[in-house]
Design brief:
Immunoglobulin-like; TIM Barrel; 3 domains; ten-stranded mixed β-sheet; eight-stranded parallel β-barrel
Length: 597
């Protein structure tokens, strides 16, 4: 599966986001520094941003020949290089009455220095190794390790010979990777708003910046979710039964307060960010009962999508107006899914569909509506979560050539791992759109399983659980992996009126103390996202004593291998790209080995 197939959208005009899903967007323009200062020189990249036509695979039903074509191109490699010495990136930002920490040197412990004082920011250190430059794989080979209490340490690769414990097979190739990502939520932005502007800017750079996670894909909700501040839609009428088929009441006023600023702040850091969107519920007047019990304040929770032509036409217009409205704000939406979790009637905003209704809506209403309105976004089949029941939504679309002509990708989460072979056989990319956010009030089956707490622990156990999920999905063939919560407050609470489930996040804000904490899950994800570029190809890897290893070859030829060692500290030998090294990996810890091109 090529990157061109993975993203077969035409260029979107009027938006700050990457306009085309037709190729790998350019990656960072720098390399990694061991010690701080930005590198200069180094090996420049080749390739570039993908380009392509409006229609990726055969055209729409109303234009069978298709216009445009499949995007081409690859990821631009960095133009920076290595440097030694320089500035560390950790340390604490002092608040009123606090003491500013130093800006250099190694940061050890479970998060670095914490500055006390009113309004001070807790900025955990990076554990010693500062990845300077502007992201991507460094032009020289290197290793970074992490373990609980000792995150992001620079190690040493020692030339070795003999039998390797870890072997990367560069000839064995799998899916092309589009990048890591995360979901935008109102509660996440509200938490970040509690920080000073400088700390909030730092948080955005940690998530989207070249020296942070380099998140490349963002998921935007259409209306309310379980992590909105309250229930709402973009078309509210006087009552739950009053209709508005012409969408006279459609408004993005709510998003202008809590969502669009969040997305724009991300685009300011990473203008190439790719954006997908989906609703948890349509406007309540588009649904019929039975609704979920204990609804507050109205029938946003549960219910079934109406199946009459007038409602379906209005809903297609609703989604089209959303994409067009965001474009007017400089935000290009590349793909829209009609419904999140279409078979789960939840006690937070949700809606139930049948596979037959979903197929009809995509084929007869949404696809033609986007075409008529010249909306450049394509349709993602998703977001599917409920195992074999939701797999029927995908297979019914796959069996209909007219519906498939509008589809650019599949979006899956939760219990859909077993469906990956079927979905990837379509030739379209499959996005993992939401990882398990941890602190489960039920047994998820993931190990290790942390004990449920009314205050999410955001601890190393969650980081390990997240790694296990991540490796299963990536080894299963997904083209992208998105976390549910990029940032939350310390409570992690949501709108669910029946089930207490406070959830974990990558960044946690104490809104009272106005401090920011980097969680262990952030560092575990960074072991991949810091070095694996959009457009990278997953490689085969075999590793004795390591759990679920991953390896990728970047467009510039560098090879990234990420290992988790569940046992005691070890000194294994790795062979990658014709080179053999010995290295140290901590107990119950991680190592990322980058072989330069």
């Amino acid at each position: 599966m090529t990157m061109a197939l993975a993203f077969a959208l035409g260029a979107c005009s009027g938006g700050k986001g990457q306009g085309s899903l037709g190729g790998a967007s350019g990656s960072g323009t720098g390399g990694a520094a061991t010690g701080g200062a930005q590198g200069t020189g180094g090996q420049s990249g080749t390739g570039g941003a993908g380009s392509g036509g409006q229609i990726g695979t055969g055209g729409h039903a109303t234009n069978p020949s298709g216009t445009g074509g499949i995007g081409s191109g690859g990821a631009a490699a960095g133009t920076g290089g290595t440097a030694t010495g320089g500035v560390g990136t950790g340390g604490a930002v002092a608040g009123t009455g606090g003491t500013a920490a130093g800006t250099g040197g190694a940061m050890t412990g479970t998060g670095g220095a914490t500055t006390s004082g009113t309004g001070g920011a807790t900025m955990p250190g990076t554990g010693g190794a500062t990845m300077s430059g502007t992201g991507g794989a460094p032009p020289t080979s290197m290793i970074v390790t992490s373990a609980e209490g000792a995150y992001w340490q620079t190690g040493t690769l020692t030339p070795a010979s003999g039998t390797a414990d870890v072997t990367v097979y560069s000839f064995q190739t799998f899916q092309t990777f589009a990048g890591f990502g995360g979901s935008f939520t109102e509660r996440g932005w509200a938490a970040l708003q509690a920080l000073s502007s400088s700390d909030r800017d730092r948080a955005m750079k940690l998530l989207f910046g070249a020296d942070g996670l380099r998140l490349a894909v963002g998921r935007i909700p259409i209306g309310a979710t379980d992590y909105s501040l309250d229930r709402f839609s973009l078309d509210v009428t006087d009552s739950d039964t009053a209709t508005d088929f012409a969408l006279a009441n459609f408004s993005l006023a709510r998003d202008m307060q809590n969502m669009i600023p969040y997305v724009q702040a991300a685009l300011d850091v990473n203008p190439a960010l790719r954006l997908i969107a989906d609703p948890w519920t349509p406007p309540v007047w588009m649904k019929t009962g039975p609704f979920s019990t204990s609804n507050t304040p109205s029938n946003y929770d549960g219910g079934n999508m109406k199946d009459d032509a007038q409602t379906l036409s209005a809903y297609a217009l609703y989604l089209s107006k959303f994409v067009q409205g965001y474009a007017q704000q400089g935000i290009a939406i590349e793909a829209v899914a009609p419904q999140s979790d279409p078979t789960f009637p939840q006690t937070f905003p949700s809606c139930v569909w049948t596979p037959a209704l979903y197929l009809m809506f995509v084929r007869d209403y949404l696809g033609p509506r986007f075409l008529a309105d010249d909306v450049k976004a394509r349709i993602m089949v998703g977001m599917l979560a409920n195992g074999a029941m939701d797999e029927q939504f995908a297979t019914s679309i796959m069996a209909d050539p007219v519906a498939m002509s509008f589809i650019t990708a599949f979006g899956v989460e939760d219990n859909m791992v077993n469906a990956l072979p079927t979905l990837t056989s379509s030739g379209l990319p499959v996005f993992q759109t939401e990882q398990d956010p941890g602190n489960d009030p039920f047994q998820s089956g993931a190990q290790p399983q942390a004990m449920f707490s009314t205050i999410p622990a955001n601890d190393y156990i969650f980081a390990l659980q997240n790694w296990q999920q991540l490796s299963v999905w990536l080894n299963g063939g997904v083209a992208s992996y998105l976390v549910k919560h990029m940032a939350l407050d310390t409570l992690g609470a949501n709108l669910d009126v029946s089930r207490l489930w406070p959830q974990d996040a990558l960044l946690v804000v104490d809104t009272t103390a106005q401090t920011l904490t980097i969680t262990p899950a952030f560092y575990v994800l960074r072991h991949l996202s810091q070095f694996v570029d959009p457009g990278a190809i997953r490689l085969g890897v075999q590793a004795s004593g390591m759990m679920d290893p991953l390896a990728f070859r970047n467009p510039d030829g560098s090879i990234v291998t990420v290992l988790f060692n569940p046992g005691a500290a070890a000194q294994p030998v790795i062979t990658v790209g014709g080179t053999t090294w010995q290295f140290s990996i901590p107990a119950n810890g991680f190592a990322t080995i980058v072989k330069a091109p």
